[in-house]
Specification:
Length: 406
């Protein structure tokens, strides 16, 4: 055996990581009850209210921020066997209760500065079948990893992928634990705490087929043990080279005797016109349902078309009884800069006929290896008959993001 070689040599090793900084400032319009409680509106770029009796949140001009880092790597351990690991960490930079009212992660950290193992997995491939087990990211319609915030959610899971059928990927997965924050408050993840997914884990089975030219069709079934069964159907196609269309339908059947089935359907169309990509989407959730179709791990983001690319509306459009439409456009006509704007309106016929709308405008680009993004959103609510967070208030939010990957 030659010097420096081994039957268990590690090959194709790759190391990657990154740093992300987020500063977010919001100007929330206060209700009369909140003003009477002693809260006050401070406006954008202000620290905000420290003590808020509603959900512990900070409205009336709250700012939040923080910095996260990740370091990870993958390697081939031997023929057909690979492994990966990643550590993610977070720090407030000492800004909490100073420049900002709190962190983007809220109270989802054990301490203000912390780190944890985000991924640790092994995988083996035999023929056209790959088995992967451990802590990992997932990307399925109803359970997926969100990376928009400083800390991402991951899963303790086992996944089998098979490509024996032509143009088809079959997926089978068991999810045991996750670190998602299921309150829907936008914190995404508990950095150091992994809890049982659902009551006793969940199974997921999927099929993704590309047999029809320029078309991707997928079907998913979920069994969240002792909680609910769900399925998701979706097809996306490109027509005449410049028009994209898509359709979605999802259903969730709770296993408890009281709650009713929930369902939602959505369609979208987009086209490339004169250097712009323009699109429109519509979704309709059954008003007799009892559950939304947000990410089960976080109860926040959604894969439904009308929820794409929004700071706040993604948590609204899939609620039971909600009809939503969204229009938007994006362009890269400015060299080195991506610009996007969208408008979404959601009307909930099941809860006092309230109507919520939002504008989202974003710009992103790079200066060398440094990625910069600015997102501005304005939310308008026409009625008081909504949850406490959105009750009869307008909201202006600016989110600034800087990333450095290596």
């Amino acid at each position: 055996m030659a010097l420096g070689t081994s039957a268990f040599a590690i090959d194709n090793a790759k190391v990657n990581g990154g740093i992300k900084f987020i500063y977010q400032t919001a100007d929330w319009e206060l209700t009369s009850a909140e003003k009477a409680s002693g809260l006050y509106e401070t406006g954008l770029f202000k620290q905000g209210n420290i003590n808020n009796p509603i959900s512990g949140a900070s409205y009336g001009g709250a700012a939040s921020g923080g910095l996260s880092f990740s370091v990870g790597g993958t390697a081939d351990l031997t023929q057909g066997v690979s492994a990966g690991a990643e550590v993610q960490g977070f720090t407030t930079l000492g800004l909490e209760n100073n420049l900002v009212i709190g962190s983007m992660q809220g109270s989802r950290l054990d301490v203000d500065d912390a780190a944890s193992m985000a991924q640790l997995w092994m995988a083996t491939t035999l023929g056209k079948t790959t088995v992967k087990a451990g802590r990992m990211e997932l990307d399925t319609p109803l359970a997926f990893t969100e990376k928009w915030n400083l800390i991402k959610n991951t899963f303790d899971a086992a996944v089998v992928l098979n490509n024996d059928l032509p143009n088809t990927t079959l997926v089978a997965a068991w999810v045991g634990k996750h670190n998602g924050d299921t309150t829907g408050a936008g914190y995404v993840a508990h950095l150091n705490t992994y809890t049982t997914f659902g009551v006793s884990g969940a199974y997921a089975f999927g099929a993704i087929n590309k047999s029809i030219p320029n078309t991707t069709a997928q079907a998913w079934y979920y069994n969240v043990c002792d909680v609910a069964d769900a399925y998701w159907l979706q097809a996306d196609a490109k027509l005449v080279g410049m028009i994209d269309v898509g359709a979605q339908y999802a259903n969730l059947d709770p296993k408890a005797s009281g709650p009713k089935d929930s369902s939602i359907w959505a369609v979208k169309a987009s086209a490339d016109v004169a250097g712009f990509n323009v699109y429109a989407a519509y979704s309709d959730a059954d008003e007799d349902g009892t559950a939304s179709f947000a990410n089960v791990s976080t109860n926040d983001k959604t894969k439904i078309y009308t929820g794409d690319g929004s700071i706040y509306m993604d948590g609204i459009v899939t609620r039971p009884g909600t009809e939503a439409f969204k229009i938007g456009a994006s362009t890269k006509m400015v060299p080195g800069v991506s610009l996007a704007a969208s408008y979404c309106d959601a009307s909930d016929v099941s809860v006092q006929n309230h109507d919520i709308s939002a504008w989202d405008v974003s710009a992103s680009g790079k200066i060398g290896a440094l990625g910069l993004t600015a997102i501005y959103t304005q939310v308008n609510n026409d009625t008081d008959g909504t949850s406490q967070v959105y009750a009869g208030r307008d909201n202006d939010t600016l989110r600034l993001i800087a990333t450095l990957a290596f």
